[in-house]
Amino acid sequence: AIGAINIFKHLPIGVKLGATVVASASMIVGISLFGVSRLQAIGALQEAVGQQASVTRLMNYGTIAALDLRTISRGLAGQQTIVAVKRELEQAEKASASAADWLKQARSATKNPNELSLLGITLDQLARVDAGVRKEAALRIEMLTIRQKRLFQARPLFDTEQHIRPRTRERRCLARRRGLGQVQWRKGRRASG
Q1: Burial of 59 (0-12, 13-18, 19+ CB in 10 A)
Q2: Would the pTM count as exceeding 0.85?
Q3: In the Cβ-directed half-sphere of 78, how many Cα atoms lie within 13 Å?
Q4: pLDDT digits (tens, 9 = 90+) for 23-64
Q5: Dihedral, 100, 105, 109, 115 alpha carbons, nearest 10
Q6: Spatial distance between the Cα atoms of 77 and 167, rounded to a whole number of angstroms
């Protein structure tokens, strides 16, 4: 080691300065390459985080649209006209299509096998909820149709009963009850059939 120092001591000053410049330049290049490689790694991590954030955002949008579908399905039971049920069903179809689109975009954007599996399950469940909402709407329309038919069939009978003179109406009631063998109390008298 002492011999190397002596050799370095006896070198001309130009060689010493040149060796110092080469050594410092090689250290700067080495540090720069290390920094660039770290920046590339950080850039790749940021890209992965950005990708995951976009997938998460798409999943959140799909979830919000699916919750809209659920809210709309709750409102179907309270609708009293066929037009209102059809309007709610159209909104449900739009919410379902929107949720499915968002979730499909998320599925195409991710490469994570766990997320792919969960998104597949979510899309299947969304299809089941959509089918349930459609069935609920169909049953509600059917129920409203039946109710309207029966109401319109009973309405003329109800209307004519309201316009008959009161005594005639009482007589008809008495005649009906007599036919059934029921007892009628009227003004202290007992009328039996």
Answers
A1: buried
A2: no
A3: 5
A4: 999 999 999 999 998 988 888 888 888 888 888 888 888 888
A5: -10
A6: 43
